[in-house]
Design brief:
- It is a single chain.
- The protein has 16 helices and 5 strands.
- The chain is mainly α and 446 residues long.
- It has a 3-stranded antiparallel sheet with strand order 4-1-5. A two-stranded antiparallel sheet has the order 2-3.
- A hairpin with a 5-residue loop joins strand 2 and strand 3.
- The longest helix has 34 residues.
- The radius of gyration is 26 Å and the shape is globular.
Length: 446
């Protein structure tokens, strides 16, 4: 505890770090205030029915928007259109050689960022139209005047809201701490955690709910899930590397041979993307079978059903391998090692190295995909155990994966700033502590 307090004091004593943290908190506060502002032309008292459809993709959208989706807020679409546009641009860089060349230099990356912003506007426009249709179906009575002019106004407001959230995310990344987009999503998730805890306690406090003992057991189970997610997120397979002997230096030759390094391969390289893709895919049959009342069709609409869970697990595992194959290229890694005179001990450079790296990736991806799928279905299992729907979402799934990942990344950012500040202070002092100071030279009388 004493060390934690000392660390907090060190963080607060660094002007740059304190400014970045306050700037980040300020923009997050602005975002949370905007979440509470309802769209023009909508009666806030008539929005009680909009929260009844929170399963599947709609629940994911509401989670990413920090509850703004169900509040019919000006930030109802949140940062999701920007994320969709960014994913599309990443896939284009993999599939289209012209886009891949743009990502190779700084000017090309600036063009890609510009294209991403333009694509965000287009995605937001179509999502805004779909959201208006969704409002008409769920809370049509809350719309004061459902006219064409009102629809145009809502499209403009939703688009402006998404662009403003995107701008805040970029500013947090530039002048704050960590990835701004991820921090905004995490802020919305944490904002929903406290009400979920209160709601769960109220349900347990009622007669027959189990009381304090069951509530404590649930909290311990949630903490165990968080620990498992941390292990999955931080799990890494290190492939040892050696570098051939080489001489550097233009005027003075310097031997830099014998250096050792490693290739860090994460157990969960795909992060949360397979869960997002799986939920999006499973939303399609639920929508197409909305009028079908057969038993198998009803299972696709119920996230706690056996058929839904099995399909979900298979999709998560499949998408984990697919997305990992997209972002990891063993052949390119092998070529990069050859150019830098690096090699894996006991493995021939070239094709053998590429095959070796691909085999390692496949071996660590399988258990990572299975654990990721298990984390994805934990909220459904928690709901079957009698936990409220709001609180069960924090037993795994997208919300918990994002929250844990962003917190770990933010802590690493703060730690790097602390180490950087200590390094700067050492260099500025001009002497290493513990050394005898050099006496100033005696001036020569002239």
């Amino acid at each position: 505890m004493k060390k934690l307090i000392e660390t907090i004091k060190n963080i607060w004593s660094i002007d740059e770090l304190r400014t970045r943290i306050l700037f980040t908190l300020g923009l997050i506060l602005v975002y949370r205030v905007g979440v509470q502002i309802v769209l023009p032309g909508i009666n806030p008292n008539g929005l009680s029915d909009i929260g009844k459809s929170q399963n599947g993709l709609l629940g994911l959208l509401n989670s990413f928007a920090g509850g703004a989706f169900n509040h019919a807020s000006i930030f109802a679409l949140g940062i999701m259109p920007y994320i969709s546009a960014s994913i599309a641009m990443q896939l284009l860089q993999i599939a289209v050689p012209q886009f891949k060349k743009l990502g190779a230099d700084e000017s090309g990356r600036r063009k890609l960022n510009m294209y991403t912003r333009y694509l965000t506007i287009g995605v937001t426009f179509f999502q805004a139209l779909a959201y208006i249709n969704y409002l008409n179906q769920t809370v049509g009575s809350a719309i004061i005047e459902n006219t064409f002019l009102w629809k145009c106004l809502v499209v403009v407001v939703l688009t402006a809201g998404t662009l403003f959230v995107m701008w805040m995310g970029e500013k947090i990344t530039e002048k704050g701490i960590g990835n701004g987009t991820s921090l905004i999503i995490m802020a919305g998730i944490i904002a929903r955690l406290i009400p979920a805890l209160i709601h769960e306690w109220n349900s347990r406090a009622v007669g027959g709910g189990g009381g304090l003992i069951v509530y404590v057991i649930e909290i311990v189970a949630m903490l165990a899930t968080i620990l498992g997610i941390i292990v999955l997120t931080q799990g890494t397979r290190k492939i040892p590397l050696n570098y051939a002997r080489r001489m550097t230096g233009a005027t003075t030759l310097k031997d830099v041979s014998g250096s050792r390094d490693f290739i860090p391969l994460k157990v969960n390289m795909a992060n949360v993307m397979p869960i997002i893709f799986a939920q999006a895919i499973l939303f399609i049959p639920g929508t197409l079978l909305s009028g079908n009342t057969s038993s198998w069709a009803m299972q696709f609409k119920d996230p706690t059903s056996l058929l839904y869970s099995i399909t979900y697990v298979v999709l998560v595992i499949a998408f984990t391998f697919f997305y990992t194959a997209l972002i990891m290229n063993p052949t390119q890694m092998s070529d990069d090692l050859k150019r830098s005179n690096g090699f894996i001990p006991g493995v021939k450079p070239g094709e053998d190295t590429a095959n070796y790296i691909a085999t390692i990736i496949d071996r660590i991806t399988l258990p990572g995909a299975v654990i990721l799928a298990l984390i994805g279905v934990l909220p459904s299992i928690a709901r079957l155990c009698g936990i409220t729907s709001d609180f069960s979402n924090f037993f795994g799934g997208t919300s918990m994966l994002i929250m844990v990942g962003v917190i770990l990344d933010t802590l690493q950012q703060i730690e790097s700033k602390l180490l950087e500040k200590q390094y700067d202070g050492l260099m500025q002092s001009g002497r290493i502590s513990g050394r005898t100071p050099i006496s100033s030279p005696t001036p020569i009388a002239g």
